[in-house]
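Title: Prediction job returns without error message
Component: structure pipeline
Severity: low
Priority: P3
Assignee: unassigned

Description:
Job completed but the reporter wants confirmation the result is attached to the right record. Sequence as submitted:
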Amino acid sequence: MNCGRSHLLTYQVADLEPKKYIRGKFELWYLISFLRALSNSLTAKDQHKRAVIKVQLTHENALEILGGKVPSPSSLNEFLDDNLKIHQVDTQNDIHH
């Protein structure tokens, strides 16, 4: 890629909302890195009062730990409600036939 084209792409991306080009997994990686750095700072031995971190957040357990703390979007709830109702009706029809 030539330099002029990369500058053009940089300007185009700069005008976009970050959600348009940053994937969720990268946001999660950043969040985990930030929280680890914060944890290291708060638990450093030279701190007057050190924080006690009871759970170690990793890439492997982040969704398990954080998932229950984030509300589901209403669009996801509607999708699941609609599709589960359809599935229940189909299942009941299979039982009665």
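Comment from assignee: result matches the submitted record. The chain has a mean pLDDT of 78.
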